[in-house]
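Why does residue order matter? Because the sequence determines the fold. Keep that principle in mind as you read this record.
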Amino acid sequence: MKLFFLFFIEYCFCWRNYIIIDPKTTETFYEQVKSDDLQLTIDMSLISKGTLNYRVRRPNMVLADKDFKTATRGSAILKYSGAGPYAIDIFNPDDEPIYMVLGSYVDKEFEVDEDTAYIKSILEKLKSDLRNIYNQNMRIKEIKEENLRNLKKAKFKAYFLFVIALLYILVAYIKLRVVKSFFVLKKGVRP
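Structure:
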């Protein structure tokens, strides 16, 4: 039973790659589909803010540079059928790195009965829910880190304003002492 669970975890999670795409760079990933395979499933999920340009080159297909599609925050599931090598080009047009998850899986053909189809639909729903929870957690982590950076900036500004206020009081006190020193009472003169 433990071995089955291990294979299930491997099937659901190990075919996904966590990737950082550097600014203004293109990354290419390859997947081979054999003639007896059913289809290729590509799952892209953007974790950080920004946009990506992507394209999938099918076998015997020539694409121009303008054939990129734009992916925004969220996930996209693409399915392709046909044997041959597939290439996935991902381009980051932004000035900041993009964090994403890329998964590719080749569906194999096997006999499906009613129970297997039901279990497969439940596992697909579970996989989708887990992916959404993970993406939400990563977004929350990014928001938390951004809030901490803003808090540090605000803390520095508050300290800076406090020091300026102390300097202002010190300058006013010194100015008062200097002005008082000009008006010294002479002995024997009553005010």
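The first helix runs from residue 2 to 13.
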